[in-house]
Amino acid sequence: MVALNGSPTWRIAQAIIELNQADLDPHRLAQEKTQAVKAMLLDSVRPLPLIEVVKAWHGRRPMSVGTGSESAVAEALLAHLELRHYFSAVVAADHVVNHKPAPDTFLLCAERMGVAPEKCVVFEDADFGLQAAKRAGMDAVDVRLL
């Protein structure tokens, strides 16, 4: 399952369903998971120390979030952490057809920020995201190594 980190929720649900040979709709399972996670995350999540970089560069460079999560979860989480205003765009799994490791998420981030892809730097916590950044022609930093 770790190999699916960065994938949209429905794709992970589909893999779990196949692994367990269950007769479930992956989109419905993903929706139920999203609702449960929203409730749990809002009580327990804390921003990474990397948020200090975001605060330091706010207003100096455009920034966006490109996530494999559904937009409802991403937007709720950023609002709850009072971080949404730092980002000019949030691109989530439901905004693109081809998900990470395809470059679409990050290319749409660049487009919405009005920045050429080759001028972007991606801070990423998953292998699929690092692959997506490379395919988009962007530099990337693996935050798991920081």
From TrEMBL:
Assigned keywords, A-Z: Hydrolase, Metal-binding
This protein's name: Phosphatase YqaB
Gene3D superfamilies the UniProt entry points to: HAD superfamily/HAD-like
Organism: Klebsiella pneumoniae
Stored InterPro entries: HAD-like_sf (IPR036412), HAD-like_SPP (IPR051806), HAD-SF_hydro_IA (IPR006439), HAD_sf (IPR023214)
Keyword Hydrolase among UniProt keywords: yes
Family designation: Belongs to the HAD-like hydrolase superfamily. CbbY/CbbZ/Gph/YieH family.
The gene coding this protein: yqaB
A matching Pfam family: Hydrolase
A GO molecular-function descriptor: metal ion binding
Entry EC number(s): 3.1.3.-
